[in-house]
Amino acid sequence: MVAMLAFGGTFAYFTAEATDVTGQATVGTVEISTGATTTITAASTYAVPGATIYNNQSVSLTNTSTVDIYVFATLSAQIDGQDLYVQTGEDPSYSYESAITAKLGASISNWTAVSGHDGVYGYKVTASTQPSAFIFTVTLSENIKEHHLQNGASDFTVTNNICTDKAGTEYGEALEGKPITVTLTFRAIQAEGFADAAEAYAAL
pTM of the predicted model, to two decimals? Predict the structure, then answer.
């Protein structure tokens, strides 16, 4: 703004200056945790065919993010450190199913399967709100033949329906004493800029 006044033939100028407008913001944070003391307890220490190993096991998640996020849970289960399959049916029409299955529990809420990604579940959470607990169940296939839990080479002269792939490659060992490992991993990403959970997961 400029103003001009006249006094006795002498010009005096008044001037004014506006302060620069400065905006301030803070970069948002994405942060989740399960807590240092999170534990899961097996329903059965020694599993048998058809047994439920973890029954509606609940794991809580703490969200301290300052922006809306997608949270993803990746759930998997293995026997002897690998994916094993049960061969069912008769030659040549064999079919294959997982020897051990990990899936969402019956009472799960808000968590949904992410399209195109087996064993991955997503949840859109608003800033600083807490997601529902992740609940899962792990079961051993009831189609595992009883003799696979016994020692002795003679057991495998009858049939061997435990495979390391869906092409019929035999596992070749008894399952007795083999460790079962369940892995649950949580990851998070900002929700802004993604059309849905599948798109957000692909960006991780």
Answer: 0.74
